[in-house]
Every structure is written in C-alpha cells, then in structure tokens.
Amino acid sequence: MDNTQILGYLGALVVGLVLGLIGGGGSILTVPLLVYLLGYNPIIATAYSLFVVGTTSLVGTFKKHKEGLVDIKTGLAFSFPSFVAVYLSRRYLVPNIPNNLFSIGNFTLTKEMGIMVFFSIIMFLAAISMIKNTKEDLLPNVKQAYYKTFIQGLIIGTITGIIGAGGGFLYVPALVLWANIPMKKAVGTSLIIVTINSLIGFTGDMQTLEIDWIFLLSFTFISVLGILLGVFLSKFISSKKLKKSFGLFTLIMAVYIIYRETS
C-alpha cells in the first residue's frame, strides 16, 4: 500500500467523522478526495461518493435515533421527493450531459469540470446561508407545511443527483432554516435523508458504470468507523458551534474545488 492509498483511507476516516459531527459534508470530502488524491474520474467519484456516504449515514442514523435526534416524519417528507429526483438524475440526466458543454476560444468546459464547478457553487451558497443566517436563534420551533418540504425535496434531490452528493450539506441548512428544526436534531434527521437518497441514487449508477467493489467496500468500512467516532464526539459540542463550523467547513472546501478546477 503506497502513501497515496494510506492518505485515501485516512480521508475515509475523516469523511465518517465529519458526517457524525455535522450530518453532512461526507460528499464534500469524498468527491475531492477521490478526484484529486486518488485520481478517479469525477463521474466515477460522484457515484462512489453516493455509496460511501449512504452506507456510512445509515449507521449514523441508527446511532442518532437512539439519542432521540432524528425527526422521522420530516426526514421522510424530504426523502420521498428527493430520492425520486436523485435516481432519475443519476439514471437519465447525468449520463446524457454532453462531454463538452461549451467552448470559448481555446477553453473548453467539459462535463467533468462542469460538475465539479457546479458542486462548488452549491456548496458556497449553502455555506453562506449557515454562517450568516440566525433564523434558528430568533424564531420559534414551528414546522413548515409539508407541501413546501416536498417541493424543496425535489429541488435538492435534483441538485444532489447531478453532483453525486448525499446532500447533507444542503439538507442540514434546509432543516434548520426552512423546517425550523434545532441544529443537533437537523444533523440526525439529515442522515436518514442522505442514506435514502445516496443508496437509491447509487442504484442508478450501477446500471451505467463498472464498480470496483473491493476498493469501495474497504473505503466505506473505514468511513463507518469514522462516523461512530463522530457521533460520540458530537455529544460534547454545542449546536451553535456545530452550525458555524458546518458553514465554514463547507465554504473552505468550495473555494478549494473552484481553485483546483480553474488553476
């Protein structure tokens, strides 16, 4: 095992740790890790990310549920429209995106580059919403109408399907800012949404891609160990600190991806 592989597996541990702490961010780490460190094509990387994040989040969901930090009804209300949108996006939309999106002079925006840039833009917007918005602290805990949740689930599901993310970095802000769920419960609730979205989205990729199961399962196993550690450590961190840390972490990764893709 060379140094790159060792770093890759250490990264898998961090992926799980981040998911356990903030309920999102697994894909924020997994996709760049697979693309920039391990050299995977972004299309393969986003597919692998769905499986890793989905399986790891499944373990985290059980742990958070035992602590009473999962709002199952709200989670399922987001999940149903989301997983439909994710599956259709991965099965039909992503495979049919043209390899070259457009050209300007000597510059050509490829499908792979476009997905990574779109990924970073969505991350940036989610980060700003969590860093600046104080709605959770100012408003009472009144949940929104389920039809709004349904529409939001469709939109976020389509976005996460395109970028191959579990969507935790989008669902946590949505649950906090739209559904008015406290941060720690939003973290737990997001895991059930991420689990369903990711694993169903991955079934769409299984029909169009060749999967290296030995690598994928070993990477996922280490990530699961990470989420168990993250869930344990989250008990000792306040919701306010989690919210700000989530936003800053997402912002840093968004800037890094834009830098890598444009440099």
TrEMBL record:
Keywords: Cell membrane, Membrane, Transmembrane, Transmembrane helix. The chain crosses the membrane at residues 7-37, 43-62, 113-131, 151-172, 213-233, 245-262. Pfam families: TauE. It comes from the Bacteria. It is found in: Cell membrane; Membrane. Coiled coil: none annotated. Belongs to the 4-toluene sulfonate uptake permease (TSUP) (TC 2.A.102) family. This is Probable membrane transporter protein. It comes from Seonamhaeicola maritimus.
